[in-house]
Every structure is written in C-alpha cells, then in structure tokens.
Amino acid sequence: MLMTLSRNDKVLVLVVDFDDDLSLANVETPVIGYENVLKVGCSFGVVKPKDSDLNAIFVGLNTYNEFKNKGFNVEIAVVSGSREDGPASFIKISKQLDYLKEKLGFSHIYLVSDSPQDEAIIPLLNSYGKVIGIERAIVEQIRSVEETYLVLSKYLKKAFTEQPYAKYFLGIPGLLIFTYIVLFILGLSEYITWFSLLIFSIIMITKGFGVIDRIREFWRTSIFSGVLIGASTVLLTYTVIIVIIILYLEGYSFQALYS
C-alpha cells in the first residue's frame, strides 16, 4: 500500500481510544504532534501502565518514525471516544476528525488500535481519507499460568465495574436468576426454559431493532415521550408475563379456544 503513496501525500497516523480510557489521566483529545503524543503516553503510563491503549500510543509513535524515516509527509494524532456505549463514541470521534481534517489536511490514514472495537470506526475514517493500513497493538506476554490469571482478573474486573460489559455479564444473568426464583416460588419452575427464551427474545428484539436507541432519542427530544415509551414497554412486558402466570394459576387452558 505504501508503494502507492507519493512524498506529497499527507499521512495521518491515527491512534484511537474508543472507550476513552485516556480520560482517566485527564487527557483531552485530539492530541496532535509527536512530542505531544509522547507526553500523553508518558502521563497515561503513570496512571494506567498495564492498559493496552498505552501500547497503542507507542506503536503509533514507532509507526510515525517509520514513515518519517522513509521521507513521507506524516503527522500523528490521538483521538478518543466516550465512556458511554456506542453512538456517543462515534459522535465524539467524528467531531475530532472534522477538526483534524481542517487543521492538518491529510489525505491518507494509518490506523493504530488495541482492539477490534476501535476498528469499528474504519467506515467513518473512509469518509475523511484513504485508510492505507491498520495495525493492532498486541502486548507480548509469556503464557504462564500466573500471567493468564492476571489477564483474566483484569477483564473480570472490567465485567463487574465498567459499562457496557457489566450489563451483559451481570444484568442478563441477574435477570435470569430473578426469573427462576419467581417461577420457583410460584411453583412454575418447569417453565424456566420458556421464560428464559422469552427474556432472550425480548433482549434480541430490543437490540436488533435499536429500541433502546430510539427511546434515548425520544428522551433527548421530548422527556414526556421518552418516559411514556419506556414505561409502556416495561409495563407491557410485565403485564404479559403476569397475565400468563394468572391464567395458569386459574387453570385456564388455551386448548379451550379450540374445543
């Protein structure tokens, strides 16, 4: 890909921190220039020395030097997303790219990331310049039992303390356990499989059709509409479940409809 570049093409080595871990070191992005990025790497390394974003920063600096040594017109920058989930990160990164495009006038982008999540912005990057390369910052480790345990404990901590991981690792299992307890108390534990499938189907429909995002959008534009839709969704779901339970306890059979 580098063979297609001319010395006049402006290349941006872009380091992406999608979930904004840099904010833990009070770093505001975008950060532009080799010296500034190096300072950010050092300050972030003091706060989060084991974070994979730190590796991405120094991989980006190394990549910048490689381009520079080969005589290319290159600049380096760091952008970050949001601690919130999904759309907020894309919006924030897009605004930073607007600024970088206007200030630097780059035509090509070399992306440096530390996870597949960061690489989700590639379609967005293509609207700002030609993506000529992607480099994943991978931490070299000795695969010992002790280090495997440390890595596992790190991600378990993320699962318990950080969104959006917590809602999947804690929220959904917690909902299933709660459902099982309720059904057990009501003497309906034999239906746990069906109720579990019902919960999963609701979650899949909600995520698949972007129901939560739509509710959030309504919430932003109209508080009344957001509250009404959110409350209606929850109320309808629990009403259906309660009605099914009551009908069962009353000995109602749907086969009566056909007799």
TrEMBL record:
<dbReference type="InterPro" id="IPR007254">
    <property type="entry name" value="DUF373"/>
</dbReference>
<protein>
    <submittedName>
        <fullName>DUF373 family protein</fullName>
    </submittedName>
</protein>
<keyword id="KW-0472">Membrane</keyword>
<feature type="transmembrane region" description="Helical">
    <location>
        <begin position="192"/>
        <end position="212"/>
    </location>
</feature>
<dbReference type="Pfam" id="PF04123">
    <property type="entry name" value="DUF373"/>
</dbReference>
<keyword id="KW-0812">Transmembrane</keyword>
<feature type="transmembrane region" description="Helical">
    <location>
        <begin position="224"/>
        <end position="249"/>
    </location>
</feature>
<feature type="transmembrane region" description="Helical">
    <location>
        <begin position="165"/>
        <end position="186"/>
    </location>
</feature>
<keyword id="KW-1133">Transmembrane helix</keyword>
